[in-house]
Structure to design on (172 residues):
């Protein structure tokens, strides 16, 4: 399992429930990594995705919520609302089943954790790899991500330019 997120220069994850920056490079990286895979997120993250991009195309969108019954009317082909935080185990243990149902998934697809903060805090310890984009600007975010990778992960810089630095953390 992998995780992927971006933060500003002060580890800001979001401001007023939204991502305050617009980075074409980061969005292309996110799409390249997650396309044809499974993405797991909380309901606030799901509903923060602009309606025209929701659900994320060519990905199985798993939305964790304490009350999935509220969304019974939102039957969308590649979205599953669930309160089962262990669903990733079923997905990883039954890849053929999910490939048969969702033919857009890669044969050897990955499961990506894509937010929000409580979902990251719950799942990052279970991830073998974490991708973090560090945006080189302060957006005065009101939600900070402060996960410490130093003890369990090694890192390498995947890409860096004037706008951002993408780091790949791999579990030791």
């Amino acid at each position: 399992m992998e995780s992927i997120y971006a933060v500003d220069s002060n580890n800001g994850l979001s401001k007023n429930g939204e991502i305050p920056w617009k980075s074409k490079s980061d969005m292309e990286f996110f799409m390249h990594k997650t396309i044809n895979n499974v993405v797991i997120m909380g309901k606030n993250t799901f509903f923060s995705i602009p309606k025209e991009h929701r659900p994320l195309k060519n990905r199985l969108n798993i939305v964790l919520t304490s009350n999935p019954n509220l969304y019974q009317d939102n039957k969308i082909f590649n979205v599953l609302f669930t309160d089962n935080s262990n669903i990733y185990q079923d997905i990883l243990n039954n890849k053929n089943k999910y490939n048969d149902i969702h033919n857009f998934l890669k044969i050897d697809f990955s499961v990506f954790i894509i937010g929000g903060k409580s979902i990251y805090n719950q799942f990052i310890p279970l991830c073998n790899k974490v991708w973090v984009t560090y945006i080189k600007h302060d957006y005065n975010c009101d939600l900070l991500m402060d996960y410490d990778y130093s003890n369990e992960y090694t890192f390498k810089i995947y890409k860096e330019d004037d706008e951002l630095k993408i780091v790949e953390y791999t579990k030791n």
Remarks:
- Helices lie at 24-34, 43-48, 87-93, 95-101, 117-123.
- The mean pLDDT is 94.
